[in-house]
Amino acid sequence: QVQLVESGGGLVQAGGSLRLSCAASGLTFSMNTMGWFRRAPGKEREFVAAFRWGDGTADYADSVKGRFTGSQDNTENTVYLQMNSLKPEDTAVYYCAAQYGSIWYSRYVQTLYKYWGQGTQVTVSS
């Protein structure tokens, strides 16, 4: 069983920064993609970023490109999401998720993420 635990959310003013962490435990050796998604109030959950496990390949939603940067610590099985220049529209619950046995092309497909974290709230005040 895989467990994903997010941390690092909080309240920040517009223009500020936060770093989210997602620590994975369990059967991580066969994990191939870790993704970040978010759900804003009254909206559907949307793709934020994805990282191909082990080689540093990353992809970001257009809305966060240039502001959010991800990194991996393979020894700690942890993915980080550094969020800079935060905007009020970034306010959401952020979730990390893990894919197994899928190809990189499927990184946007939420239903192919087998494991999900509990989410961490990010609130950006104007």
Care to describe what's here?
The strands form two sheets. Strands 2, 4, 5, 6, 9, 10 and 11 form a seven-stranded mixed beta sheet that branches. Strands 1-3-8-7 form a four-stranded antiparallel beta sheet, with no helix packed on it. The protein is built from no helices and eleven strands. The chain has strands spanning 3-7, 10-13, 18-25, 31-39, 46-52, 58-60, 68-73, 78-83, 92-100, 113-116, 120-125. The chain is an all-beta fold. The mean pLDDT is 92.
Q: SSE order, as H and E?
A: EEEEEEEEEEE
Q: Rough shape? A: globular
The tally of helices reads 0
Specify Rg, calculated over alpha carbons. 14 Å
What is the mean predicted local confidence, pLDDT? 92
Question: Which regions have little confidence, pLDDT < 50, spanning 5+ residues?
Answer: none
Biggest beta sheet attributes: 7 strands, mixed
User: How much helix, percentage-wise, in residues?
Assistant: under 10%
Helix/strand-derived category reads mainly beta
Measured between the Cα atoms of the first and last residue, the distance is: 40 Å
| Residues in β-strands, percent | over 45%
Number of strands: 11
Give me a quick take on this structure:
The protein is mainly beta. Helices cover 0% and strands 53% of the residues.
Fill in the keyword field for this structure.
single chain, 126 residues, four-stranded antiparallel beta sheet
